[in-house]
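Minutes, project check-in
Item: structure for the 113-residue chain
Input as provided by the requester:
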Amino acid sequence: MFILAGIMKSTQPKEKLAKMAWTTRYSSGIVKFIGISELLIGLGIILPRLTFTYALLTPIAALALCLIMLLASIDHYKNKEMKEIGINIFVLVMAGFVAYGRYVELGLITLQK
């Protein structure tokens, strides 16, 4: 999902992205930066699992996604776009679970009884 969204935001002109209200509040450079970030995060979550290399990238990418979703929630809240906040929080929680699970899997967080 974020790979496709990232490609769209990083390659489309800002005018074509105007259906997303937040894009009208930011410069085209910021919109492209967010798109590239989402593209890299999507790749960082998927590719290490597929290639069996650089496993630490997955939880780092998931935490970066948490940060983007937190900032997006704040932006939507400031602009009274409450409907979008639910989606941001849902993705934030799911990315948090991925990060936590991968850190446990890598042994960087231990579960103690």
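Outcome recorded: The mean pLDDT is 93.
No further action items on this chain.
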